[in-house]
Design a protein that fits this description.
alpha+beta, OB fold (Dihydrolipoamide Acetyltransferase, E2P), 3 domains, 5-stranded mixed sheet, 3-stranded antiparallel sheet, globular
């Protein structure tokens, strides 16, 4: 059997927590087979003096050494040899996210880890859409929940129901719908100019936002301005209480401030210069604390009409 694989390997961070990703949704939906396995081989075949091919081999896909989380193929062969593309070959690069990834992960002795492969079949060829390395059991369980949830939505035949259920999924995972989703349902005429959420979806989104899923800010900022403002004010005041703030604390403070102020400060204003200096070395810790106190007062007085 001729098998060709497009493989992109990622190492998982808090990606499975609040930082759920619309590209993960795409990977799950594009996959015909999702399998976790901790027993596979890799080898390199030298083609010539400037080209080599890397292969991944599943010698035994069976109960005990692997777990199948999604299977739209029916029967699954017990052996697979997968061609891993490297060095500028055709990756599914659009599935890469901007954040949530790291260069490496320290494995703990005594823990069991497994890799998770997302595989799409086209004719006699297999393409690996995504590959997570060294997942712990708890991470696999979280991934399994997402796979089951999205696979269930995928099977819904009615367009209106699938659209609504997918919107619910986005909200539950603290995500705004991506352009592919919006453009598709515009073509289906379920979306006109913009997405219209139900009142229950807005309420659910506010709850998720207040639990830390801040990616939902765009759909909530105008409708729940006071609630959103209160959330970020509390966040800024908590940062102010930190005894020895680090760079990331100042960064979080400026993000919270900006979420309400929304680029409305004049670039040559004193408040803008103070705000933009928090993550620089222009001021020491004492002065930065004074700046934060001042910006909190500016924040408290800010109204939706200012935007």
């Amino acid at each position: 059997m001729k098998i060709k694989t497009l493989l992109f390997s990622l190492i998982l961070l808090p990606f499975l927590g609040n930082a759920q990703n619309t590209n993960l949704r795409k990977a799950i939906l594009k996959s015909d087979l999702i399998v976790s396995i901790n027993d596979y081989r890799m080898d390199t075949v030298r083609i010539n003096d400037y080209t080599s091919k890397v292969f991944i081999h599943f010698d035994k896909i069976k109960k005990g050494n692997s777990w199948i989380y999604k299977n739209n193929l029916g029967s699954v062969t017990k052996k697979l040899s997968l061609w891993k593309l490297v060095d500028g070959e055709d990756f599914y690069s659009y599935l890469i996210t901007d954040g949530g990834l790291c260069a490496g992960k320290v494995l703990e002795h005594g823990k069991v880890y497994s890799d998770l492969f997302f595989i799409k079949k086209e004719k006699s060829e297999y393409k690996i859409v995504l590959h997570f390395q060294s997942l712990e059991w708890e991470q696999l369980q979280k991934m399994e929940q997402q796979i089951k949830s999205l696979s269930s939505i995928e099977k819904i035949k009615n367009e209106n129901e699938r659209y609504t259920k997918t919107l619910d999924w986005f909200i539950e995972n603290g995500l705004m719908p991506d352009n592919d989703f919006v453009d598709y349902y515009k073509e289906k005429q379920l979306i006109k100019d913009s997405i219209i959420y139900s009142e229950s979806q807005y309420v659910k989104a506010l709850q998720e936002f207040q639990n830390g899923k801040e990616e939902l800010l765009p759909m909530l900022r105008s409708k729940y301005f006071n609630e959103v403002k209160t959330y970020y004010l509390q966040k800024m005041e908590d940062i102010l209480k930190i005894d020895k703030p680090q760079w990331n604390d100042y960064y979080d403070f400026t993000n919270a401030f900006q979420s309400i102020i929304n680029d409305e400060l004049e670039y040559d204003s004193t408040d803008y210069l103070l705000y933009s200096s928090l993550t620089s070395d222009k001021f020491d810790e004492y002065d930065k604390r004074r700046i934060m106190k001042h910006l909190i007062e500016v924040f408290k007085d800010w109204e939706l009409e200012n935007n």
